[in-house]
Amino acid sequence: MMPHFSYKTSKKDLQRRGTLDTPHGSIQTPFFMPIATRGAVKQVTIDELKGLGASIILSNTYHLFQRPGLEILKKFNGLHSFMGWDGPILTDSGGYQVFSLSKMRKITDEGVRFQSEIDGREIFLTPESVIETQLTIGSDILMVLDECPPWPCTREEAEKAVKRTIAWATRSKVYFEKRMKQKRIAPEKRPLVFGIVQGSTFLDLRKRCVEELSKLDFDGYAIGGVAVGEGMEDKQTIIKAIAPLLPADKPRYLMGLGKPEEIVFAVQNGVDMFDCVIPTREARHGQLYVRKGAITKKSFYETIKIGNEKYKFDKKPIDPHCPCYTCTHHSRAYLRHLFSINEGLALRLATLHNLAFYLDLMKELRK
Fold first, then answer.
1. Among all residues, which ones are annotated catalytic?
2. CATH 3.20.20.105 location in the chain
3. In this model, does residue 100 exceed pLDDT 70?
4. Is the pTM above the cut of 0.70?
């Protein structure tokens, strides 16, 4: 198999600078993936995403399976063509829905049985069906089905989830390699498949999970279950202990995290890939990011609530140093006005700015 990831490490810390090759192009690491859960980044067009510097997006297998559905995706030869995005796409496996839709699902060793929140029909996810669905989607990076335990959880619950995650990862890898042989995909067109490390806050369980998944020789490795309610100290302990244990020659992905300072901390500890709903979700609630200084400083940014009265006459842009469309064309007072009248344009302009903040942060970290 052709190598798909090359990197070099900082002399000062564990930070890595690399290149990840995928069927739809190469990506410079570390990078952040805007969330396109159902095939769209909310409020943002494809051209705007490219203009902001997004090199890869993240979509969700579980949600795409339901809508638009595999029949439509097959008709369009995959999600890239359907949504008009020609860059790489990573798809989550639906493992997070195993966690978040706990009242609507039943987990067994065979897989996960859901009742659809849309139409009530039964959905049965297995490690094999999740891989097959992602192949239909045309994903560049496929995530295996895993079990994300809740937080807090008992050691017994975490241990059971780790055991099942390893078993499902094994089945996923076997099925993936079988399908690659059947489809006779050229090496440069072969998608990548990542394993996911679970174990809650029990470091010995996480280390065991790393050891077992490493034997399967995945194309990359993710740290899962670190954005489900733990405090900052627990998150940092897990990242610091586990990231350096992941195979050095494979990309390292921290799933679902996080805040800007969490991303900086993780990059300094050797993590390469990130995704999070925070920038787009907070934008829709009028919470906007403003840089205050170099990322070496403890408080290098602040957030402002643009709906506050104090911005009523404020002629300044959200961030005077931000080159995004919103900051170069509009004032804080105008943004506040748009939110006050529930104008949809407010959500678009706020989202563009917050994504620009995150993507510019990644550019700076790559330097």
1. 92, 275
2. 5-276
3. no
4. yes
